[in-house]
Amino acid sequence: MPVDEVLYRAAVGLIESRLASVDWATAAALRMDDGSIRVGIALDNINSGAGLCAEVGPIAQAYTEGRRVVDSICVTRSRDRQHDLVLAPCGLCQERLALWGPDIEVGVFDTEDPRGWSGRRLRELNPYYWASAFFEDERWPTTAEHSD
Ligand SMILES: [Zn+2]
Description:
This protein is an alpha+beta fold. Helix content is about 25%, strand content about 25%.
């Protein structure tokens, strides 16, 4: 399923309901294989090393429930509240999402698209995925191989 307006609105809705008074707000929405959506916010901490990306909560929830993530979007709202930006997953979250394979679609910042964002497959963000080097056919590891 593609990253779509429904997923985008889920992330923005969480910003508006949970982070309305925060200067800089980031939320993620991830769709599961059954079509349900999990949302999360970035965990800020005075020790920035203890912070977590907005995707981490929904990723952990999906894994806990035995669900497969099929697409993901992360939205950050600027301090002036004039702009919502879709951010591609960071390197760590790309690694976390790789658990479910290279065909997960993720939202990316895209000035060519009238919405300012579009969807890309994880393999497009990371065409030389490091773990592929361990397989003769250079495929991505399966979920089970990731979890070993
Ligand atoms: Zn991240």
